[in-house]
Write a structure and sequence with these properties.
By secondary structure, the protein is α/β, with parallel strands linked by helices. It is 26% helix and 29% strand. It is built from nine helices and 20 strands. The strands form four sheets. Strands 1-2-3-13-4-14-18-16-17 form a nine-stranded mixed β-sheet, sandwiched between helices. Strands 11-12-20-19-15 form a five-stranded mixed β-sheet, with helices on one face. Strand 16, helix 7 and strand 17 form a beta-alpha-beta unit.
């Protein structure tokens, strides 16, 4: 039996199931925030901000905050992202070969191709209508499959195979000759709208496997989109709980497009977050500059747990494991935003939360990925530290973490907001 209160991780599982795309993740976050008394604000409207909780959404990115004291001294920002590597449906998706109907897709982000083979997949995303409305859709049942070539026809498959992203990763969804427009007609019908009124779409493949606990003691947790819904969910939970922050404003900023570089009008490289923060101070530049100088940000994203079959791939002195608590990510070359001041910020937050923690550093000869931390820290000119959960199988269609770690990450976020 589990040795901890798994209510947070159970709730994370529900959040993941409700959030197959960034657009669904924002909608579900908004639903949870509104249930806790937060108000959604339209960016095009005039904001009259009083004590209370608020949020705004732009293109799969969400920023939420709580004002507990109208005399704002600083911001405590918990950053994350809403997107995940997957396959995105192309604008004209109907294709096929040799009597099979197929859907044309494009690789989105760093997808480990093999993890998507022979897996039941669905489709989810958003439709933008003629009148500008945005309609979410999720076909929550098996619909697509990328079939593996039988081993009899590929005897060297276990010796390693590089798949061609254009010709060998096209999913099937039926038999017969493809008809132009058929797939979008089907998706529109699932969404309850007229296909003729669909003027744009962002649709992605979705892994259907249910989140699950693993192991004799259920101490492991497996799901798709742990990277990075663990952080978005932790930020939501912490923000709702952050009722005693004085003149510091707790902020959750979870961005779309992190997995493809963040260079969009709603990504971490955009002025979205800066615009929101300036509006909280009535666009008073002097007040904004003073407040930013007194503020801090924690960029939260998953990191690599030490792999038992490949320990040589990890830095020998820094081998985080599931169950050991959140990590601080350190990089001399600033792939992660973590120097001495930032390390102290992390440790104060962890101390306030009363949780264990670990340190992650890449091997010198294996550069790791990066996060929104250096981007947002540079955009805002704000003290920023990179943190995250240690996981296995990062970017896979099925990732793995310690079952207790998501709750500890939420504790860390609350520690940032309240220390």
């Amino acid at each position: 039996m589990p040795r901890f209160d798994r209510s947070h991780t159970d709730d994370l599982a529900a959040y993941i199931k409700a959030s197959p795309t960034p657009y669904h993740a924002c909608a579900e976050a908004g639903r949870r925030l509104e249930a806790a008394g937060f108000e959604r604000l339209d960016e095009t409207g005039e904001w009259q901000l009083e004590v209370g909780g608020y949020y705004t959404v732009r293109d799969g990115s969400i920023i939420a905050w709580r004002v507990n004291d109208p005399d704002i001294d600083g911001f405590r920002i918990f950053g994350a992202h809403t997107d995940t590597p997957a396959f995105k449906v192309k604008p004209r998706p109907d294709t096929g070969s040799a009597g099979w109907k197929q859907i044309a897709v494009e690789v989105y982000g760093g997808v480990p191709h093999q993890t998507w083979l022979d897996r039941d997949l669905s489709v989810a995303g958003r439709l933008v209508m003629r009148d500008g409305r945005e309609v979410l859709v999720h076909v929550d049942r098996p619909l697509l499959r990328v079939p593996r070539l039988a081993i009899h026809l590929d005897r060297g498959v276990n010796e390693g195979q590089k798949l061609n992203a254009q010709s060998q990763l096209t999913p099937i969804w039926g038999l017969g000759q493809p008809r132009d427009g058929e797939f979008l007609e089907f998706i529109a019908a699932e969404a309850g709208v007229d296909a003729n009124d669909v003027f744009g779409h962002d649709l992605f493949t979705v892994a259907l496997d249910e989140p699950a606990y693993l192991g004799k003691d259920e101490e492991l947790f497996a799901a798709w989109r742990l990277d990075n819904l663990t952080s978005t969910h932790a930020g939501i939970a912490a923000l709702i709980a952050a009722e005693d922050t004085g003149a510091n404003v707790p902020v959750l900023a979870s961005f779309n497009y992190e997995e493809v570089g963040s260079m969009t009008y709603s990504g971490a490289q955009s002025p979205f977050l800066e615009t929101v923060l300036r509006r909280l101070l009535a666009d008073d530049f002097e007040a904004y500059a003073r407040t930013i100088a007194a503020s801090a940000m924690m960029s939260s994203d998953t990191g690599n747990a030490v792999h038992p079959n490949y320990p040589e791939k990890h830095e020998p002195g820094h081998r985080p494991i599931p169950g050991g608590g959140p990590m601080i990510k350190v990089s001399a070359n600033q792939r992660y935003a973590s120097g001495a001041e930032e390390q102290a910020l992390f440790r104060r937050s962890a101390e306030k939360a009363g949780i264990p923690w670990q340190t992650y550093v890449n091997r010198n000869d294996i550069p790791g990925g990066t996060t929104i931390g250096p981007i947002s820290g540079t955009q805002l000119g704000i003290l920023t530290v990179d943190v995250g959960l240690p996981i296995l199988s990062m970017h896979s269609a099925r990732e793995l973490c310690g079952a207790e770690d998501p709750g500890l990450l939420a504790d860390l976020a609350l520690g940032l907001f309240t220390h």
